[in-house]
């Protein structure tokens, strides 16, 4: 279907297999890595000790793989902005390359399946996600499933302006 503009909140009926969005860029900083270590409790020197990491397989400190997954999830929240009710599953996820400090990433988020449920009040949506650098270099990729509300739910809750015109 091609890439669409990111606009107001979308209901599941506005999502079709093949629709794809691209997020803005997000730079992974050393501060992000330190904060993630604090939140996760993962203080592996591969991420935090420059001397240790320099002697390791990557020659420098790299971000936690799960930090990349968390950033991908955050970028997906607005690419596109949908009426997500729940994150259901990580169906598959690959950590293709380590993410070095200072790397800018963006998310390519494509609809794979839309499965209406609960008499059309919501749908299970399967997404193909790729976390890439500015030149398309692949760092992580996988498939996730979310629960997305219907357009009628958005109207009932007062959301408006669900323009999903293609750009």
UniProtKB/TrEMBL annotation:
Entries under SUPFAM superfamilies matching the protein: Thioesterase/thiol ester dehydrase-isomerase
Residue span(s) of domain MaoC-like: 17-115
InterPro entries to which the protein is assigned, alphabetical: HotDog_dom_sf, MaoC-like_dom, MCH/BMMD
Protein name: MaoC domain protein dehydratase
Native source species: Isosphaera pallida (strain ATCC 43644 / DSM 9630 / IS1B)
